[in-house]
């Protein structure tokens, strides 16, 4: 019998909502359908400004919280319509929400996602599982990354030491040893697309460097690259997680004077920064890795992928499509799986990943009836 779940994911790129319908019946996995809901320019601008300024009025926050819930409800209903599925067959929605603050290392650690799950449950008439991160943080975890448990469930190999690399705004790794007695490791490596996108938006006036074509025509500024790589985050051991609160253009401009260099050469250098920091993370913390499978929007950046292939050397590099799941939908699918874990009352966190003191149930359940 089918067990259908919906996963909703909106990441640190602030560009829109990935929605997927997944069959998670026992010993079965099937991606039934997908839908992408882009954010209106006004919403994207508000989110980008909020991340940059770290301030917002309460009425504006309340309005944004509601608007994001509306957009997610629209995405769910359009997904169900496209898949021609009766919503009565859906077990639950796994809803990440939009992260506006993530500070796991503060004295009062917290992670805040907005997009009212109560409204989403009411508008879709479906159970919603949301607020996945904070229970892990309540037991001394980082609250991130949360997808390694799903990666292990779907992508583990008994023959090869694998790593799953998600390149979103922030890049994160899941290390999957073939020996199941060894712990799964997962952590944020640092910037994925975030600096590339922000620098491109400033100088090229569009959302992202399509295929990395702009970066590919520039020159890497080696002294600048080495300067950026000296940040302690890159050498700190896991567990660790980060976000746009840390890696942003302000972080970049604290380390050099942009006027000294050509803007295109800085873009090239930022691509090298993402590739070098990812490669160093694998070499330093998972030196026995044999295969790396990429998901997230970064797989579309051909220049970045070429840099990774060169730097990883003999390690096999491919997208998760080689494992049966398109890279655009891995993260959203993971939150469908996390919702199922919550309904089954199974722990969703991986202690060796987040550093939590114990396994815990992740997510609160919202029902409208």
Oligomer classification: single chain
- Outline, from the CA principal axes? globular
**Range of helix content:** 25-40%
- Rg estimate, integer Å: 20 Å
Assess the beta-strand content as a share of residues.
15-25%
Q: How many β-strand runs?
A: 12
Strand-pairing-aware structural class: alpha/beta
Which parts are unreliable, with pLDDT below 50 for 5 consecutive residues or more? none
The averaged pLDDT comes out at 95
Would you identify the CATH H-level superfamily of the largest domain? ATPase, nucleotide binding domain
Number of helices: 13
Provide the domain count: 2
Characterize the biggest β-sheet.
7 strands, mixed
Order of helices and strands: EEEHHEEHEHHEEEHHHHHEHEHHE
CATH topology name of the largest domain: Nucleotidyltransferase, domain 5
The N- to C-terminal Cα distance equals 24 Å
What is the level 1 CATH name of the largest domain? Alpha Beta
CATH architecture of the largest domain: 2-Layer Sandwich
């Amino acid at each position: 019998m089918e067990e259908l779940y919906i996963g909703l994911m909106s990441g640190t790129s602030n560009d829109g909502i990935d929605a997927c319908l997944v069959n998670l019946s026992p010993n079965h996995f099937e991606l039934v359908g997908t839908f992408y809901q882009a954010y209106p320019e006004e919403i994207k601008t508000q989110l980008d400004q909020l991340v940059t300024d770290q301030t917002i009025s309460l009425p504006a926050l309340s309005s944004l919280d509601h608007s994001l819930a509306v957009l997610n409800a629209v995405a769910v209903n359009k997904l169900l319509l496209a898949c021609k599925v009766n919503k009565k067959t859906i077990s639950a929605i796994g809803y990440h929400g939009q992260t506006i603050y993530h500070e796991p290392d503060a004295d009062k650690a917290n992670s805040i996602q907005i997009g009212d799950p109560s409204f989403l449950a009411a508008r879709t008439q479906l159970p919603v599982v949301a607020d996945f991160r904070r229970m892990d943080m309540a037991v001394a975890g980082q609250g991130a990354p949360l997808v390694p448990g799903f990666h292990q469930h779907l992508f583990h190999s008994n023959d090869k030491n694998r790593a799953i690399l998600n390149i979103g705004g922030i890049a994160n790794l899941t290390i999957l040893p073939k020996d199941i007695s060894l712990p799964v490791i997962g952590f944020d490596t640092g910037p994925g697309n975030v600096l590339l996108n922000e620098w491109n938006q400033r100088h090229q006036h569009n959302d992202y460097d399509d295929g990395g074509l702009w970066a590919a025509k520039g020159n890497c500024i080696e002294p600048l690259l080495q300067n950026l790589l000296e940040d302690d985050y890159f050498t700190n051991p896991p567990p660790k997680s980060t976000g746009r609160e840390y890696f942003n253009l302000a972080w970049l401009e604290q380390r050099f004077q942009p006027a000294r260099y050509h803007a295109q050469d800085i873009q090239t250098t930022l691509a090298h920064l993402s590739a070098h920091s990812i490669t160093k993370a694998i070499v330093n913390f998972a030196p026995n890795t044999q295969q790396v499978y990429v998901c997230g929007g970064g797989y579309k950046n051909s220049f970045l992928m070429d840099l990774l292939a060169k730097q990883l050397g003999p390690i096999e590099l491919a997208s998760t499509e080689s494992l049966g799941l398109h890279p655009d939908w891995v993260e959203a699918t993971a939150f469908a799986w996390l919702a199922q874990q919550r309904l089954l009352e199974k722990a969703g966190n991986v202690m060796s990943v987040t550093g939590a003191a114990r396994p815990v149930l992740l997510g609160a359940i919202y029902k409208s009836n």
